[in-house]
Amino acid sequence: MIAPLSWLKEYVDIDVTPQELQDKLFSCGFEVEELHQVGEDISGVVVGLVETCEAIPDTHLHLTTVNAGEHGTFQVCCGADNVAAGKKFPLALVGATVYATARDHVTVEGVMTIKKGKLRGYESFGMLCSGTELGVNEDMFEGAGYNGLLELPDDAPVGADVKPILGLDDWLFDIAITANRPDCQSIFGIAREVAAVLGKELKEPALDYHPTDVEKEGFTVEVEAPDLCPRYIGHYVYDVKIGPSPRWMRRRLALVGMNSISNIVDITNYILMELGQPMHAFDEDFIREGRILVRRAHKDEVITTLDELDYKMNENTLCICDGVGPVALAGVMGGLNSEIRDTTKAVLFEAAKFARDNIRHTSRALGKRTDASARYEKGTDEYTTVMAMKRALHLIEELGCGKVSKTHCDCNTGNSVEPAEMKVSVEKVNSVLGITVPDEDIVRIMKNLQFDPSINGDELTLHVPAYRTDIENYPDISEEVIRMYGYEHIQPTLLKSASVTAGGLTVRQRGEMSLKKRLCAEGLYEAMHYSFFSPADLDLLMLDQDDPLRQAVRLINPINEDLSIMRTTLAASMLHAIERNQKNNNLSGRLFEVANRFIPKSLPLTDYPDELSTLCVGIWGMQEDFFSLKGIADVIAEHLHVTFTYERAQKPFLHPYQSAEIFCEGEKVGYLGTGCFEVIRDLNLRFRPYIMELDLSLLEKYYSKAPRFTPIPKYAVEKRDLALVMDKDVTCGQVEEVIRDACKKVTGTYLFDVYEGSQIPADKKSMAFTVTFTPDEEEFTTEMVDGYVHKILKNLKKSLDIEMRV
Amino acid sequence: MANLEELRGKIAAIREEIRKETANLQDSKAVYELKKSFLDKSGRIGQLMRYMKDVDPSQRAEFGKNVNALKDWALEHFNSMDEEMRRREVQAQYEREKIDITMPSHRRTAGNLHPVTQVRNQLIDIFSGMGFEIFEGTEVENDYYNFTALNTPKDHPARDMQDTFYLSPDFVLRTQTSAAQIHVMENEKPPIKILSPGKVFRSDDDATHSPMFSQMEGLVVDKGITLGDLQGMLDVFVKKVFGDETRTRLRPSFFPFTEPSVEVDVSCFECGGKGCNFCKHTGWIEILGAGIVNRKVLENCGVDPDVYSGLAFGIGIERVAMLKYGINNIKQLFESDLRVLEQINDK
Asked: Which structural domain range is residue A58 located in?
């Protein structure tokens, strides 16, 4: 919301600097996002009187002497056609800054600094300027639109700064308005706050007008949809003379970025800016059958709007119709068929309140956003609707561009425009703040905010202005009081009246954090990836078309296709993280992520999907292999005081012989493996990725499992190394199982060597284990341990045809 | 008969011989060998005793004493020689083991928690000390909990404040952890003190916005909660996170679920509030939004707003992490680049 200082001053006597006003507004809830002077790029330009002016032969140039009063008299070369002796123009002195223009003298191409120059051998000390070079157009100053020098009035004092003369010393406040204050989406709305925060009187804009006796025979307005249009005011204005608006109005519209069109259209735009009420003017000639009907559109009914586009409406679209059909898309844009033209002789002014959500819907559905719709979406109020019509009629008279008839139609099912009485407890108002604001300050503040307050004991009686639709209960009053009284008055306390509560983490939260820290200790870094990923990632993982992981929840409005479905696996994001790291020459690394996978109960979504907490580990680099990944899995198992078992398994994105499913106490809890070659090729990886996913939602039941102490054996353990020769397809797991089953005293088996080669038969391999025997009650003798080994070897021979290596 | 004087000469000669031979020894092994040759039973000193039978009986005691004195002296001498040799040997070994201590260390590197997790843990630490429980809601949220119950009905302009990702007409990716407030208040009776950290989503993707980021919602519902309590609690939080000299400032703002609503700024920890590039010369940095829980929100959850009141605040965790560690691009937090992750290890 842009508010020019000069315009605000129309309603409030502002006696602080723009910077002070910025701070004041900030303190009461209106952040000035940008404060800048209109002519901030212009400096060193003064009123110059051309004293002599001679044409330079064979050129379009003139050589002039320009009197700049106290600054001196300068020789200036000038190429403009309207330079003449005796006239006053803006003179940019050497060192001045003005806008640089393109060859067309119209297009601004940045800011330039004036230097001493030489044209055709004639020295020039400064530059006479056009309106464009000073950033002034015809709307802002008469004659500024001329493509030549900007002629200044005869009474402009020679040598004076031109900025005040041209209005370039004005300031623009770009103010952020919070969604609860639609009443401040206007210059006058801001002025009300400025008056309150400065403690100054607020001057209302003039609203008086004088209707003639003329009446528009048989003219009617009817609202068929009062739920969408609680108030509709129409007023007939005749003897309209379309022409330009006065300079002051054009200047203000220009300052807030609006083009002047014609007096009637400008009045509607001016009121939109001044009061925040969108208005519309219909050319009366084109209102067929002399009647207005506000109704819901029929299905597929079409309207052609001012911008000459056709829109297909539906039963949810509110439209303004004449006796025959739609003439405006309510609250969004007028129809082409009733547009104001140069020949318009009479108009119907419309000021209406439309339901904000309906306008929002229409605007979104039709993809059409206008100043009016943007304003309606934020919410308007009936108080301002009434005020706006009065103001429009006043301006008609002030501008002398028409006559105000007696025909005034007002369809009103809306809110009262009178202030609503509200009684609140002073103590309650203060209880929100935790301090006691003195009664007289409360009264002063609420008076400044136009709430007409009075206090009787603990009872504060207020009269809430009808435009303050945000005020509902005492906390709203607390906020009004404190934002004006000053938040610096709040005294920090530490929940002095609150009860003591237990606080802290749950077992699951603590368990998860402890697991994360354990993984960090293994050299893993925690990663965090988006909860959504790409359908292309499902293809990267080469999942079957009927793979359940393809049943992902889709976003209706994703940012792009790459972020369009909720993750059903964390593996793809991890593979991409490995890809990015390898591209950045991070040639080895260990990452993990703990995040949710989203598994819908049904699609489309009718219930919350299951959010399954999942751990994903990704490692890569020269020193990593399947077994270092498995080591991480075992660390996790050990951390949780459980045992993982691994079974060979197939995953489409993993190496067929280097992948396994992970089981914990008989329950499948995840998988791990080496990335397959297709993935490596697709991601252009230099080092193989090793990926593991564990379903923490299944493992979290072990977070509370405490360690269990086993008494230290009284006697020392015995260890024996066994080198065994077996068929190549016998697995380590099978051997270990036979060894353990053969002897109760075995408490550990550790594979320390695998050998294939010339020293054993070609179809065999050798595996060497260290077997640990733990005694219970009696100390081992060599004979006892020899006996255990004998038994083990016998069983190995019997079940797996394994021999001792000789 | 052996002359005692003569024997004393032998003793003196042995002593002299020991002195002479030990002077040239180089290591403790040689000392040991030499010691053996003199002091073993059959060694040179022991052999002196063979002369005993030749000594005049009246002088035997004297002779024995002299031999024993030599033995004691030799033992003492060899021991000190041995000690000296060992000392030299150790010293020599030290010399051989001299290293260049500026060579790189050997280490096992531990990884780091994600910067967001680190900040999250710090915040949880601070607030759980004040009696807050941790409640993590779901990332997919019903429209009712994310908006309607938080006093933002459908088509309320406040919904424009956040661009929402929809999964179905009724389900969204939560835009704020405030949604968790409602679940807690529906299921627990005051006094309530919860902290709700988690991922939130907004349809924003540019240089300074990420479509996913993390928030931490705090909620207190009890009797007599005031804005003063809000400021007091947040004072504790910012001092613990940004340092004791940090100050807070409240200023008016708007959120549908709080009334009054405030933005909380902290004094710039780069310049101490004097104004610098970091704080855009304002001396203050916007850190979080907060307020007194709107009566309608309490009512929506079946909490009597005439008995209880509440305060709520929402902290952007990435924002705190970025401010605290000087990370300049939020996107870097989600790219898992080890060059980023390795740097942030906050005690």
From this structure: 43-166
